[in-house]
Amino acid sequence: MIEGIEETSASFEARSAPRSYPTNGQWKRPYGTAAEYIVLPSVQAVHLPDGTGFAEGACLGIPALTAVHAIRLAKIEARATVLIVGGAGAVAHYAIQIAKLRGARVVTTVSGDAKAKHATRAGADEVINYRTEDVAERVKALTGGRGVDVMIEMDLSGDANLYPSILRPHASVVIYGTSMSTATLPVLWLMQNSITLRFFLIYDISEADRSAAIAELSDLIQRGRLLHTVARRVALDDIAEAHEIVERGEVIGNVVVDIG
Hints:
Quinone Oxidoreductase, Chain A, domain 1, two-stranded antiparallel sheet
């Protein structure tokens, strides 16, 4: 999955009865989900609460579910300081909101002013521009030199070298992404400071974890507690352009593919 392009189109939900959104529609499917119709087990068609549009529903099955599960694994509590990497990304945008709803202080990283505003609207307390600021120094300043309690990580291979500078002893890192297939870790420091690394792939979590995450996500949506960002909608015939829009970084938010 390219973050920002959802696994199926809004029209999937529009043609379903009752209103629903898909989860894991693409995982281990031979032809993906860029199609007019796909077939899924009923458990993977989740009820879409009233008041939430089909385009917004297309953003839930991977980005929002990943965010919920990451926050649940992190066991974030009130007053914890959480660093969420890539605060303008589809997953991180939801993770910021959910962490704030749990009473956490949220620090996030972005690459520009527009993305900083987007992360702030989601509820981030502190935003660090990693292109113009020293992330480690800012984190130290924001935490009084202590480091963060939890990190929600989207790029392990790119950020691991910073861990000794930004994590407090006994901190935890929940990892849902990496930009490379391998990473160099500061293993001795991680051991000496009892750091917990939790990896997961949202496509392959247990049924119990999936059910719990969906239940929490459904409750948040039903109560109107989440902001959704649909940045662009394109037709199925323009699916290649949808990917190129994301790859070029033209938009902040999700690109949704419509059918019909």
